[in-house]
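Design request, tokens follow.
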């Protein structure tokens, strides 16, 4: 009576991975910006504040993180598709 391992639905895994990627990117942004702003000011005075750094992160880095995560999720979806189809077929076979 061994119970087989069952993966959750793909969208649950995808949302969890997306949230994890965004959380890691935000933590990285905080520490990178903290280190940058702790140093001597650069010639660009507008770049030496949190507001500008946040705008740069949201416009440049965050879309990149979301794009790369989306590509990885698409690859993962294709790799897991046979598993989910087999699971669907198995559950349909045992349905009353």
């Amino acid at each position: 009576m061994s119970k087989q391992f069952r993966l959750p639905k793909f969208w649950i895994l995808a949302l969890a991975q997306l949230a994890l990627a965004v959380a890691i990117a935000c933590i990285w942004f905080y520490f990178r910006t903290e280190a940058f702003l702790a140093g001597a000011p650069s010639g660009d005075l507008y770049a030496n504040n949190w507001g500008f750094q946040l705008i740069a992160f949201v416009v440049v880095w965050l879309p990149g993180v979301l794009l790369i995560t989306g590509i990885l999720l698409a690859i993962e979806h294709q790799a897991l598709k046979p598993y989910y189809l087999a699971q669907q077929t198995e559950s349909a076979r045992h349905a009353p």
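Comment from the thread starter after seeing the answer: thanks! The helical segments are 10-38, 50-93.
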